[in-house]
Amino acid sequence: MESPILNTGYDLSNRASIRQYMRQQRTTLSAQQQLKAAKDISQIILSQPWFQRARNIAAYLANDGEIDPIVLAEKAKYRGKQLYLPSLHSSKKGYLNFYSDSGKKIENKFGILEPDPKQNNLISAKQLDVVFLPLVAFDETGGRLGMGGGYYDRTFEFLRSSALSKPKLIGLAHDLQKVTTLPLESWDIPLDAIITNKGIYPGQTRK
């Protein structure tokens, strides 16, 4: 189901306007709807060969109505995969570190929980096989609109200029967050795919 954003008075060419509308839309989902979406997206991902081969996986702790990868994360750990979570880089502003999801969590400056660097193991972003990342909106060509901080874009910029085939970057969203087209910027890192509770949308080719 495509978002009715065109009929709301919001400007589809304005990234801030899209963010405002989509954040509002996803927070209207009930707890039951969120849980069903979490189960549905988990079922889709678990059947993918690239997920079955992956060893080191990064997810996120859902916030602000984001689709929750918690069901997927628990099933991944049950299958023996190593789960990591993003944490704001302590010395490199605007970047992320990834720590194991095994120890204490603390709130960052945005009030979002993240692994405590003192009690969790650090892994290099290049050692991750798959990274599941949240988004605010996406389009049919695999374009992603995030919260605007650019943390994932900076952290995985190395994928643009290297021959590395991993990590695979997979955006997760509710299907209602889809729009026809997004105004993308040159720094937006392309995703390998976007997966919703309804299915898989192909990503963009990296240049």
Question: Could you walk me through the main structural features you see in this protein, from its secondary elements to its overall organization?
Answer:
The protein has 5 helices and 13 strands. The strands form 3 sheets. The protein has an 8-stranded mixed beta sheet with strand order 6-3-2-1-7-10-12-13. With 207 residues, the protein is α/β, with parallel strands linked by helices. The chain has helices at 15-26, 31-46, 49-53, 70-78, 151-155, and strands spanning 56-58, 82-88, 96-100, 105-107, 113-115, 122-123, 130-134, 137-139, 144-145, 168-173, 178-179, 193-196, 200-202. The radius of gyration is 16 Å and the shape is globular. The protein is 23% helix and 23% strand. The longest helix has 16 residues, at 31-46. It has one domain: 3-Layer(aba) Sandwich (Rossmann fold). α2 (31-46) packs across α4. Residues 1-7 have low confidence and may be disordered.
Structural class: alpha/beta
Instruction: Outline the biggest β-sheet.
Output: 8 strands, mixed
Number of helices: 5
* CATH fold assignment: Rossmann fold
Number of strands: 13
Regions with little confidence, pLDDT below 50 for 5+ residues: 1-7
- Oligomer type: single chain
Query: Could you tell me the radius of gyration in angstroms?
Result: 16 Å
Element string (H = helix, E = strand): HHHEHEEEEEEEEHEEEE
Mean pLDDT across all amino acids: 88
Number of domains: 1
Shape descriptor reads globular
CATH architecture, by name, is: 3-Layer(aba) Sandwich
N/C terminus separation: 30 Å
Largest beta sheet: strand ordering? 6-3-2-1-7-10-12-13
Beta-strand residue percentage: 15-25%
CATH homologous group name: NagB/RpiA/CoA transferase-like
Tell me the helix content: 10-25%
CATH class: Alpha Beta
